[in-house]
């Protein structure tokens, strides 16, 4: 298979071809690596990957081929190459979180999300670049150099899952795992013109995801299309006893939402049978079959401010029109506490980060810098040299807001406002709104080096962090371009209602047609 | 006397290791004494991406302890992170509980005051937390070794109110607390093995003053008596400071048992800001009312109830019951013997005498003691019905300890059954009189006080089998 053909295939198509024996798993691995070489994924160009091992991936493909011979042991992602953000613990390839402090670190255990991908036949082809410890919105904070946007190499891919978004946008894999704490999947998805999903908090096990802010962190998927993302999330979602915060809510088969019908009962025997066998459901029906009849779309005024870029506003309005024409009702709504999200986020996330990153102390693993002047000096030298400036800034900020005398004024207050932000979403969904539609980001991808003020950088996530704070699922899908750069539209639904989110996304994607992607 | 002028005010923080098979937040073994760092996994090593999962058994034991100490078990408690850097604290924080602990407000009665009223020590709170690892400073010159086997082992911390007024009361509180926890079967409560650790908060104030003085925290005591001594020493130090017009400084002190002094801790614990916040990796702990109710219903019998019942049921004295109930294992053993033999007094005598002596001599725990209560009860019955003499019974018991055989069999095998047969006893008496002519002659000449000596010779000759009553009668017959 040539790299050219490969870049056009979706995950479901690849899995079907591999299972049918039309193409072998090792051919898929080769195609992915060929595409990476062809487009310049290496450190001197796009700098997408931090770690790859073509030989190991090829060997894995050979093992999968054996498995495919045994019909009872097949997966819905058979032979699909998948790229993994470097803060998700993997066996074999290192897990460095884009940080010097973990350079060369190889995890002795694997994240549940990766185990589930592998169990379903996915082939891990590399670990992708990211902002150090997922702190950033441009992938410029990687200790191993920035990733470039495949649509315009002068621009950033967004972040912190910039490497994963770029891998999918560049056609290296149809599917990648990223992670979100405050928009880190959706924002790079928007910048790179791909689909990015942040599931409900608790939907996907965090076991193996290196913690940034545990109460916000969630593994997400990036796909070339809505279908790729749906297939990916379906594979990794569901309760895991290793993560106490993972939910045992039943996981519906998200791809069925492409049929334009409300969520079937996940325990319905026919859908259950499809799940047990882990064989792929038929491909989504042609776009004509999609409908949004009866669906109420909320348009929150706080996400369409006066200052919003006019071209982005126009593309959002076009999307809303398409949804109307498919039978949806668009309703003006308000999420009044959303403007407080950025300050709340930049108290809570650093607070948790300051504690989560304490384990990187040079004692057990990772970098140790020991000036030979005792324990404290070793800690100070290791952490000062191991962490980059943004990580250091947030650890200091977080330590400060948790300090005696400041805790009530910052952390506690921020938690209270977080509850109010969540209440905003709950009451909107309780009022009959099925999904909320907003722009994903206030701008398109910006040039590398263009933003040096941290606060200006934080504002990139102004439309996305609310979903993290509220814990609701949200995704970004491409809705067009402004001056050649992709623009993302955001769909947000109620807790654990990813099914409706995918239903709207499938329909909108079909209505907008391929030009929104390309 | 400083006692008359200054009152000692003490509150104790007791850390107790829960008796679980696995750690608090991972599946690693809690085995004591494994080679260093063997009982570890990604979670207790704090590897990137690992997460804690709460051990249900630890919650059960902590709840049982709380109920046994009369605490209110909160329907919702919250785990919190206590943040500080230390090499044996892998995550850089300890998972503990802070403003919403598992349980609050209990009481421990530690005996009677001079006025005859119960002395009650309040329990402020009882919360769950995990242990840290061990830093070993003297193993490798110039370096510190870390053993993380203990990291993540489940603990409860029991914090008392500052209700303790003397070092003796502190000792009494600790002994009572230990006994209750033993009866609840939640911990090994061994200070030697580190499954019970005590930190003491102590201040002094002029008698009659209600405001508390500035406290210091004293750590590093390795026994209850060390706690008592440390409190005395620290009391005197504080009083001397105040008397000299100085001030007590709030600080953490380490007890130096060899020198009988306290010294300032090198790590300034007091200055720590632990930056507590709710542990986001764990859900709040919600305990169902019915579940707590069931736990309360199934609480083991506590020491006071056990004492009252045994006294009443077996007719033993309050002093005797104190001895018998010191540990639940001995109390249970006693009760089984007393019940099976129907003789509380004899059971008391044997358990506190021969049984404890044998345990001390062999170093065996009573739960593993070879002579099971049923066997001992049978021996007591044999003595009562005259089959085995008191003297022979000691020998039978010794052989039971040695061989593990039941008493009837031992007595039969060794020919230790009591002999009441007139002829056999007469033969032994005759032989004794012949073998000890001097004593025999003096006795027969009317020196009655020698009868006891001669009985002793006969008993020895018969290896304790002769019925002493019959021996006495026969000798009196000869002498008369």
Draw up the topology in text.
The complex is a heterodimer of chains A (518) and B (480).
Chain A: H1 3-6, H2 11-20, H3 25-39, E1 49-51, H4 54-69, E2 81-85, H5 112-119, E3 123-128, H6 162-169, E4 175-180, H7 186-192, E5 195-198, E6 218-223, H8 226-236, H9 269-277, E7 296-300, H10 310-325, E8 329-333, H11 341-356, H12 375-386, H13 389-401, H14 408-430, E9 435-439, H15 454-458, H16 465-470, E10 474-482, E11 485-492, H17 498-512
Parallel strand pairs in A: 2-3, 2-4, 7-8, 7-9
Antiparallel strand pairs in A: 1-3, 4-6, 5-6, 5-10, 9-11, 10-11
Chain B: H1 2-5, E1 6-17, H2 56-68, E2 72-73, E3 76-77, E4 79-83, E5 93-97, E6 103-112, E7 118-130, E8 134-140, E9 143-147, E10 154-160, H3 167-184, E11 196-206, E12 216-219, H4 224-243, E13 252-256, E14 261-264, E15 277-278, E16 285-286, H5 289-297, H6 303-314, H7 318-324, H8 328-341, H9 344-362, H10 373-384, H11 390-403, H12 407-413, H13 422-435, H14 437-444, H15 451-461, H16 468-479
Parallel strand pairs in B: 12-13
Antiparallel strand pairs in B: 1-10, 1-11, 2-6, 3-16, 4-5, 4-15, 6-7, 7-10, 8-9, 11-12, 13-14
